[in-house]
Design brief:
The complex is a heterotrimer.
Chain A: H1 15-28, E1 33-37, H2 40-48, E2 59-63, H3 68-71, H4 74-84, E3 89-93, H5 107-112, E4 117-119, H6 123-132, E5 137-142, H7 149-161, E6 167-171, H8 177-186, E7 190-196, H9 197-203, H10 209-213, E8 218-222, H11 226-241, E9 247-249, H12 261-270, E10 271-278, E11 282-291, H13 300-303, H14 319-323, H15 347-350, H16 355-362
Parallel strand pairs in A: 1-2, 1-7, 3-4, 3-5, 5-6, 7-8, 8-9
Antiparallel strand pairs in A: 10-11
Helix pairs in contact in A: 1-11, 2-16, 7-12
Chain B: H1 17-31, H2 34-38, E1 51-59, E2 65-66, E3 69-70, H3 71-84, E4 89-100, H4 105-122, E5 125-134, E6 142-152, E7 170-173, H5 179-187, E8 193-194, H6 205-214, E9 218-223, H7 228-239, E10 243-247, H8 255-264, E11 277-281, H9 286-294, E12 303-309, E13 316-319, E14 325-327
Parallel strand pairs in B: 4-5, 10-13
Antiparallel strand pairs in B: 1-6, 2-3, 4-6, 7-11, 7-12, 9-11, 10-12, 13-14
Helix pairs in contact in B: 1-4, 3-4, 6-9
Chain C: E1 5-13, E2 16-21, E3 24-29, E4 41-45, E5 48-52, H1 55-73
Antiparallel strand pairs in C: 1-2, 1-4, 2-3, 4-5
Classes of the chains: A alpha/beta, B alpha+beta, C alpha+beta.
């Protein structure tokens, strides 16, 4: 076997397997159903691999608010921009956020104007930046759900252990369950959820219990390769055809029922849940993560008292409805003609795995 | 020897003694040929009657040195390749330097030596040039411009325009995309990955010469530089108003590029190259051309990756390894590491 | 939220592990994962090992998938 082959990735991209799963789905799927995926990675994988071609017409895939960039409020970007303009502040961010428009600017535009904004692969790289620039205040712009929040938490714990005094986090981290429940409660069309595999790797199964027990929707935790996604759709279709709703795990090679207790513990050590604004869903109670008192010294929103200007709503932008699967990108009158990857209006177009961006790039 | 690092100063660009020393001691010395020796304002060249291919390119890369090359080797190979993919035989180059005050002379020597070596290997002469030195901060260390002249035979005139491209023609690439861009990223040390990735910077003319000798049905060529293979495919489909179908399973793959792309969320089709060419060849000759390519170092992994089609004119479509299809869109902005 | 890649652990040094994805190496953090040993496969996300890959389960799934595909082709 080729030692350079990508183990546990390539095997799940096999075209014969994908075809077979597609046949199986076609064979048993009768009802007209709506399945929602709530993860940017799934949105990308589905469109990158043209997986909708493998589904029969009676299955409708909806894209939900699973892109942490898309659901971050405009105000959050504005806040980051204001911090970036303070003298001596270095901003660090994951690449996803750099082009997201705030009310009047974006981190990319600020960078072009001279702000010190650095893109990192790991939040731990930001600790290094802080150590190498001890005269500056280094602020990490934290986005992401339960997959990424523990990393930010671990960085803060380490920063404290090492006595780092110039590292801060501006948190827009969120947790999935309240948003999922809000979706299930509010939209009766959704028959089942393709649940985010890597969020689940951290949280385990329990966060989906209510969706199946109370709201009677199918839930299958899915990996990200084509075979994973189609297998998950197959499992959901079976649940729905049999009217037997429960939480299943397709991604057994990574996701355990209890999740990752250590990552959860670190997350809970540093963060408290607060109400948070989700673009498209409005304020969702107890869905955001803010730094708790113990580590308040690392909270950028406390350290820097700044005035964040009023956000300007974008006229005609229906990102909110698209994020909740109520509309398609093509339903938006701004789509393509006004709002496109060259001139994005809303976050759904800016984020590389936002529904509109993916739809625009991969349509065929 | 003073033991101090020798640096370029503004005097090296003012037309006086220091500039003269720099020119003779550095450029003339390494680019050595009968034209540049004359130090005339213009190199006077003898050319055959017929067509000339003429191209220019500027190089502003950061970092200046990277695995597989430096700004100098890029500057020579880049211009040689622009000539070669037009079907021309590269003959002469010019080299213009804009140097930031304070630039390290040892580094400049290394770069100039690389250029001389690449030119010599290619049998091409750097016959004229220019040197400017700007105040510190007015340019990012070193900018190089090269332009090139090549001779073009009548039978190869259509290659640049692609006017003979037709449905059924095969699309060929000489190797795996993404090596240069990922090697540069590696060299910038932004992300702490360890790979043995090297830029694919190379002179493609020897391989292209074999291709053109093996077939008279090479309908179009373009080198895939910034914007990657995806950009060239889109250019072809737009220019020729043709549809393109690419089969992902046929694309040569560098496994380290693939791994890095999986980790960072990049698509190799959009990553920069400096030694890759896309050729459009009549279906009957495609295999022959690939065989010819494989005789060259730059073509060992050559493969047919797709074809021109009547469907969806103006659009390039990829059939993925899992069997699904998607449009290969134009590059919007540089790819950045994502968490999603 | 999702870009995670399986990686092979080739060295463990305190709270870090050298992991390999194909031929690419990276120093991944183990701050979020316990009991990692050389030879384990972990899921690498944004610089952290966030979970272990159950390789037995993965191999079993792959084996099943292969059987299924072959059946379908016949």
């Amino acid at each position: 076997m080729n030692p350079d082959r990508l183990r546990y990735i390539d095997e799940f991209r096999d075209s014969a397997l994908v075809r077979h799963l597609s046949h199986q789905i076609g064979n048993i799927s009768r009802k007209h159903i709506h399945l929602m995926e709530v993860c940017g990675g799934h949105t990308m994988a589905i469109h990158k691999n043209g997986l909708t071609d493998f589904l029969p017409d009676n299955i409708n895939l909806l894209s939900g608010p699973g892109c942490p960039v898309c659901v971050s409020s405009q105000r959050f970007i504005d806040h980051a921009i204001v911090l970036g303009r303070l003298p001596g502040v270095i901003l660090a961010t994951y690449g996803d956020l750099i082009r997201v428009p705030g009310s009047r600017s974006s981190l990319e535009k600020e960078k072009a104007k001279g702000a010190d904004i650095r893109i990192v692969y790991s939040v731990l790289d930001v600790l290094e930046i802080a150590k190498q620039n001890h005269k500056n205040q280094v602020v990490f712009i934290g986005i992401g759900f339960e997959t990424t929040a523990p990393a930010s938490a671990a960085a803060i714990v380490r920063a404290q252990a090492e006595g780092l005094k110039n590292f801060y986090l501006l948190s827009s981290h969120k947790v999935m369950p309240p948003a999922l429940e809000s979706l299930a409660a509010g939209d009766t069309r959704i028959d089942g959820f393709i649940a985010p595999g890597h969020v689940s790797a951290i949280t385990g199964y329990r966060i989906y219990q209510k969706l199946s027990e109370v709201y009677k929707r199918g839930v299958v935790i899915s990996g990200f390769e084509p075979a994973d996604i189609l297998q998950s759709v197959l499992m959901l279709v079976k649940q729905i055809e049999l009217n037997h709703y429960h939480v299943e795990n397709e991604y057994t090679r990574v996701v355990r029922p209890e999740g990752n207790p250590r990552a959860l513990a670190i997350m809970n050590e540093v963060f408290i849940t607060v109400d948070a604004e989700w673009r498209g869903l409005g304020v969702v109670p107890r869905s955001g993560l803010a730094i708790g008192e113990k580590y308040a010294a690392f909270d950028a929103s406390l350290r820097f008292m700044v005035n964040v200007p009023e956000s300007l709503p974008s006229k005609g932008c229906i990102c909110g409805e698209i994020l909740t699967g109520k509309s398609r990108p093509s339903d938006c009158r701004l789509f393509s003609s006004v709002c496109n990857p060259f001139n994005p209006v809303g976050a759904c177009m800016v984020s590389s795995e936002g529904a509109c961006s993916v739809f625009y790039k991969f349509r065929s | 020897m003073t033991g101090k690092t020798e640096r370029i100063s503004l005097n090296h660009g003012n037309g006086g003694i220091y500039m003269n020393r720099l020119i003779t001691g550095m450029f003339l010395r390494f680019f050595e040929n009968e034209y540049i020796r004359e130090q005339t304002d213009s190199a006077i060249l003898r050319v055959k009657a017929g067509h000339l291919a003429y191209t220019t390119d500027s190089f502003v890369i950061d970092p200046l040195f990277f695995p597989g090359g430096n700004i100098g080797s890029l500057a020579v190979c880049g211009t040689l390749n622009d000539l070669a993919v037009s079907g021309a035989k590269p003959e002469y180059l010019s080299a213009g330097f804009i140097i930031e005050e304070g630039f390290n002379v040892v580094q400049l020597t290394r770069i100039v030596k690389s250029m001389a070596m690449e030119a010599r290997k290619a049998g091409v002469r750097i016959v004229t040039g220019d040197t400017k030195v700007v105040n510190a901060g007015k340019c990012d260390k070193l900018f190089i411009n090269t332009s090139g002249i090549g001779t073009l035979e009548e039978k190869h005139l259509s290659i640049g325009s692609g006017r003979n491209v037709k449905s059924g023609d095969k699309i060929i690439i000489n190797g795996s995309p993404g090596e240069h861009g990922m090697a540069i990223m590696q060299a910038r040390k932004l992300f702490a990955f360890k790979t043995s990735l090297k830029s694919d910077c190379a002179n493609l003319y020897p391989m292209i010469r074999r291709m053109l000798a093996s077939s008279r049905q090479v309908h179009f060529m373009r080198d895939a530089t910034r914007g990657g293979v995806a950009t060239v495919l889109n250019e072809i489909s737009r220019k020729c108003n043709a549809g393109i179908e690419i089969d992902e399973t046929l694309m040569p793959v560098n496994n380290e590029v693939k791994a890095m792309c999986e980790i960072l969320g990049f698509d190799p089709l959009y990553i920069a190259n400096e030694g890759k060419v896309i050729a459009v060849v009549d279906a009957n000759d495609a295999e022959k051309v690939v065989v010819a390519m494989k005789h060259s170092d730059t073509g060992r992994q050559a493969a047919i990756i797709g074809e021109i089609t009547n469907d969806h004119p103006g659009k390039a479509v990829l059939k993925t390894s899992s069997g699904g299809r998607r449009i290969i869109d134009e590059l919007m902005s540089d790819q950045l590491p994502r968490i999603c | 939220m999702c870009l995670g890649v399986p990686a092979l652990v080739i060295r463990v040094e305190g709270t870090e592990a050298t992991v390999r994805i194909g031929a690419v190496e990276y120093q991944s953090s183990l701050l979020l994962l316990e009991n990692v040993e050389v030879g384990d496969y972990i899921l690498l996300h944004a610089g952290f090992a966030i979970e272990k890959i159950d390789t037995e389960d993965a191999e079993e799934t792959i084996r099943l998938f292969n059987e299924i595909s072959k059946m379908n082709e016949e």
